[in-house]
UniProtKB/TrEMBL annotation:
Keywords: Membrane, Transmembrane, Transmembrane helix. The chain crosses the membrane at residues 30-51, 57-73, 101-125, 132-151, 157-177, 184-204, 224-245, 313-346, 366-395. PANTHER family: SULFATE TRANSPORTER YBAR-RELATED (PTHR43310:SF1). It holds the Pfam family Sulfate_transp. It is found in: Membrane. One of its GO terms (cellular component) is membrane. Residues 413-499 form the STAS domain. This is Sulfate permease. Its main location: membrane. It comes from the Bacteria.
Length: 499
């Protein structure tokens, strides 16, 4: 019998209906969406450049992803848009085959995500250890911060005071009032100061041309052949996996920040459907964005799908209808916002000396591996995969050392009993084989497995090897005490595993 996935109860205040009825909640949703839209513009342009496409492709993708996922996603208040992780995956497609193949790749990736969501791939999230999650969060914070450094190089000196003032506003204002999101105040004040004083600094408009028309429905002009599928399938699969991984980890982070639950399976297929829609409107695809999501839920206090929907709507209005106004926003203001986001995202408790002293060395090592690989590759999927593999290896090593084989004294004459205790699997099989006195034992040997569990074929092969070693010396082995699961696995495999 299958059980429905459990999620934490949803707070009644965290619904669109509640937000529409409360001016205070509605203000948080609207202003949160506006701040996110402003922060999305330079990011979408930058990711378009990474992917090798026109900035409009990234901006339209951010609009369609945000609006679609507001209805389809399983995690309210989470922001999905064009991302750097997806841009890195699809860049070779654009470079080698052009924009139409990119759009076909995005549509196929979305379809794969829908299939994976229906198959329940979201349940695999439980195999990601806490130390990997902490490493994921810390690596994201570092990447968000380092991504801002490019906007602080070779710029007029006045940029640095502007960034400092923006940071000061966002630190001080919440202590006075939370009626208006501090990031929005910082953006408005810094933009006003730059315009009034006539200061020449890098602006959003310098990042790339903003679109002047609405996106329209289109189909990629690619031949529907097996050759096309062979070209786009590897990139589509990579994009699907990276998008699911980044989205589900971000959803888990938002669950913790807001103390609410989410439907990870719905989020998985919702991301896929959003990517299909994005591809059909000529976008480059995307997934959840940790930085903009943290702006929405932490800095602005938004909690519902309304903020996500409005982020997409405001983005389109800003770049199409108010492009001239958005273009004059100084990059210093947005850099200040993202620096504050990176500081708030980093898990400072995880690196305190008191925490590191208490934490097992293996847990700290897994966190550091996750951070290092993610930061070095700029790919969250690689970092999380490396962290999970490191955790699995260290766990197997630790469990392997708690398996014991102890001779039991006082048995019948001519018989010796060994008490085997612990978890028996591939990491313990070699040690198990070499734990017996084959030459010195009597003719009858009993292996008592009442305190052990047989987990895999490696253990069954090891027990067969033990029997064979004793048999070559004319001695018999009897195995007793196995539980039902171990007995079933042993009986199905023993003597059938070859040499």
């Amino acid at each position: 019998m299958s059980a429905r996935p459990r999620t934490a109860p949803t707070d009644d205040r965290h619904t669109v209906r509640a937000a529409l009825r409360s001016p205070r909640l509605l203000r948080a949703e609207v202003l949160g969406g506006l701040v996110v839209a402003l922060a999305l513009i330079p990011e979408a342009i930058a990711f378009s450049i990474i992917a090798g496409v026109d900035p409009r492709v990234g901006l339209f993708a951010s609009f369609t992803m945000a609006v679609s996922i507001a209805f389809l996603g399983g995690r309210p208040a989470m922001i999905s848009a064009a991302t750097g992780a997806v841009a890195l995956v699809v860049a070779p497609v654009v470079r080698e085959h052009g924009l139409d193949h990119l759009i076909a790749t995005v549509i196929l990736a979305g379809a794969l995500q829908v299939v994976l969501g229906v198959l329940g791939v979201a349940r695999l999230m439980r195999f990601i250890p806490r130390s990997v999650m902490i490493g994921f969060v810390n690596a994201l914070a570092i990447l968000i911060f380092t991504a801002q450094l490019v906007h602080l190089r070779d710029v007029p000196w006045i940029v640095y005071p502007l960034v400092a003032v923006g940071i000061a506003i966002m630190v001080a204002l919440p202590r006075v009032t939370t009626l208006v999101p501090a990031p929005l105040v910082a953006i408005v004040l810094l933009t006003g100061a730059v315009v009034v004083a006539g200061i020449t600094v890098p602006t959003v408009g310098d990042q790339g041309e903003l679109p002047s028309t609405l996106p329209h429905l289109l189909l990629p002009d690619v031949p529907l052949t097996l050759e096309t599928l062979q070209i786009i399938a590897p990139y589509a699969l990579a994009m699907a996996v990276v998008g699911i991984l980044e989205s589900l980890l971000t959803a888990k982070l938002v669950d913790d920040v807001t103390d609410t639950g989410s439907n990870k399976t719905r989020e998985t297929w919702g991301q896929g459907a959003a990517n299909v829609i994005t591809g059909l409107f000529g976008g480059m695809g995307g997934c959840a964005m940790i930085g903009q999501t943290m702006i929405n839920v932490k800095a602005s206090g938004a909690r519902t799908r309304l903020s996500t929907f409005l982020a997409g709507v405001f983005l389109l209005i800003l770049v199409v209808g108010l492009g001239d106004v958005v273009a004059i926003i100084p990059m210093a203001a947005l850099v200040a916002v993202m620096i504050i986001v990176s500081i708030g995202t980093f898990d400072w408790h995880s690196v305190r000396p008191s925490t590191l002293r208490r934490m097992p060395l293996s847990e700290t090592a897994v966190m550091l591996v996750t951070v290092a690989v993610t930061v070095l590759t700029h790919n969250l999927a690689y970092g999380v995969l490396a962290g999970v593999l490191a955790a699995a290896v260290l766990f197997a090593r630790r469990v392997a050392h708690v398996t014991t084989v102890t001779p039991v004294d006082g048995g019948p004459e001519g018989e010796r009993t060994y008490l085997v205790q612990g978890e028996l699997f591939f990491a313990t099989s070699d040690e198990l084989v070499h734990s017996f006195d084959y030459a010195g034992d009597p003719d009858r040997v009993v292996l008592d497995l009442s305190g052990a569990h047989v987990w895999d074929a490696s253990t069954v092969a090891a027990l067969d090897d033990v029997r064979a070693r004793y048999a070559r010396r004319g001695k018999g082995v009897r195995i007793v005490g196995m539980n039902a699961g171990s007995t079933d696995r042993h009986d199905r495999l023993t003597g059938r595993l070859g040499a």
